[in-house]
Design goal:
80% helix
């Protein structure tokens, strides 16, 4: 790796950490388009690197929540089990998809996610509240079955697009398993690491992983995440949502157009 590539990888890591801390989502929305557009990585390899970054960064962030007693994997284990299985399914299915189709689908997905953030903001609690009336259950068996099924779906999404599903996991913890907010955020971060780790194994076994690049980028992501946590407290949320959402939409359009140029 030459010096220019190393600088670019560190910059991508810092940017992804900033976005993780601001949006509360995985690094995938920065890592994959950046590696694809700037460094010319194939989609499968870019997603593999993104998953490894998610694993390492989420573990670091989750450790801080654990230190403060805000990680409870007891009931959340059902989501983790479902997501591990789903991630393997997604990773296996993605290998069969051609690179151009995966990049096109990813660009459309980025465009939609950016538009949603632009319109609705990034408040995790507000997003969760929209799901409250659909995810309340009055029996333990329904909670377990629902957690497993939703975990599988979250895992499949992770395996296909490289998204750890932190926000979706948090929603399930809050409204299916009745977790307190802080515990839901901390536990969802750890489960996101478990989900991403499962998908990472799938990508690694199929030769779609650059471990060195992933580790270097993850270190920068953690630094960027710490810095982003400070920035987010001093910015207006609506302006922040417009900046992040607009950036994601532009990246989505660029990734889509590149498939036809």
């Amino acid at each position: 790796m030459d010096a220019a590539s190393l600088i670019i990888i560190l910059a991508i890591g810092l940017a992804s950490g900033l976005v993780m801390s601001l949006v509360g989502a995985s690094a995938v929305m920065v890592v994959v388009p950046s590696l694809s557009i700037i460094l010319g990585y194939g989609m499968h390899l870019a997603i593999g690197v993104s998953l490894l970054v998610d694993v390492l960064a989420s573990l670091a962030i989750g450790y801080e929540y654990w230190r403060h007693g805000n990680v409870d994997l007891g009931h959340g284990l059902w989501i983790a089990l479902g997501s591990v299985a789903g991630a393997q399914l997604g990773a296996g299915y993605t290998v069969a998809l051609p690179d151009w189709f995966l990049a096109f689908s990813y660009g459309v997905w980025m465009l939609g996610a950016g538009l949603m953030i632009w319109r609705n903001g990034m408040n995790r609690t507000a997003i969760s509240d929209r799901f409250a009336k659909y995810l309340r259950f009055d029996s333990g068996s329904k909670q377990v079955i629902t957690s497993l099924l939703l975990g599988v779906l979250i895992g499949v999404n992770c395996g296909v697009f490289g998204a750890g599903g932190g926000v979706l996991i948090m929603i399930v913890l809050l409204f299916v398993l009745d977790y307190p907010v802080h515990s839901a955020i901390g536990t969802s971060t750890v489960i996101m690491a478990i989900t991403a780790a499962s998908a990472s194994v799938g990508y690694l076994m199929r030769g779609n992983m650059d471990v060195y690049v992933g580790v270097v980028m993850a270190a920068a992501t953690i630094v960027g995440g710490v810095a982003g946590a400070r920035v987010v407290n001093s910015m207006d949320e609506r302006i922040l949502a417009r900046v992040v959402g607009g950036t994601f939409m532009v990246l989505g359009v660029v990734m889509t157009l590149l498939r036809f140029i």
